[in-house]
Amino acid sequence: MIAVIAGGTGSVKLVRGLALLLEGKRPKEEGMSVIANVGDNIWLYGLYICPDIDTLVYGLAGILDEKRGWGIRGDTFSFLDQMKRSGVDAWFGLGDRDLATHVLRTEMMKRGGKSLTEVTAYFAEKFRVAADSKVLPATDSEVETMIMTYDDNDGDAAVAAGEMHLQEFWVKNAGRPKVRGVRYRGIEQAQATKQALAAIKNADRIIIAPGNPVSSIGPTLALKDIKAALAKRRADVVAVSPMIGNAAVSGPAAKYLSAVGVQASAAGVAEFYKEVAGSIVIDGRDREVASKTIKRLDMDVYETNITMQGRQDEVRLGRYLLLLLRKSR
């Protein structure tokens, strides 16, 4: 059994590759539990939207719009167009088919009393995600990743300032504001689900996927009970770096890492994960720069090509990790 701490586009690629490799295996021996980030969840248009959870479910169901990296393949956007015609600043993209997920989720939670974990399992079943690949929200509580930005943005009056939700920063403002900090609103009251904790406890090996450490993985690690559970299993946890050199494979990881005082590099990622991961996989191009630094953190370092440009790359990296995990038993 494998547990994957996941969030973001890099995570869904790896999870999809692992699922293909595990397909047809007996669930009790080779199943996968994906513990999903909830920090990017947001209330918009009266709906509870869970981008990372939905991306993982859609990806495992084979209906993800891979070109965009989010939403459902072949979707239309009549709802969004009508919202704009009605005078709404509809900056967050929701496709018409995707909208059904958010409407039903909100209805099931607000009127039906269902937890986010129960609703996620419902959609996984309806979209025919393989029974041995479970998507588990890290918590059923509402946690929001908030980005704190500087008021001064080099004189660009069009760039918003102050504290804003991650989605506002990345989608509405295209990631342009200068970042001075990141916090997880609601994290103090939040508790991990019993399903997520059981997945960590029962896993043979645990993978931290190559998502943005601060915004895609950080909210999950900020849950005290999950961090403690991972720390107990540290020797069994392998993290995959999302960095090559000083740049992220995709997204604003470098910007967020710098904002929280962590070096934007594979070595910085290792520093971020050192309490919960006993080993890390970095890109071969970072061999000379990062390896010696990371080993000082009492972490084993492995090197491979971490980029995933298509399905072959997703399977290749997944196979590398599965072989690595088997060798380390």
UniProtKB/TrEMBL annotation:
It comes from Candidatus Nitrososphaera evergladensis SR1. GO terms for molecular function: LPPG:FO 2-phospho-L-lactate transferase activity; magnesium ion binding. Pfam families: CofD (PF01933). It is an enzyme of class 2 (transferase). Its EC number is 2.7.8.28. This is LPPG:FO 2-phospho-L-lactate transferase. InterPro entries: CofD, CofD-like_dom_sf, FbiA/CofD. The keyword Kinase does not apply. Keywords: Magnesium, Transferase. Signal peptide: none annotated. It comes from the Archaea.
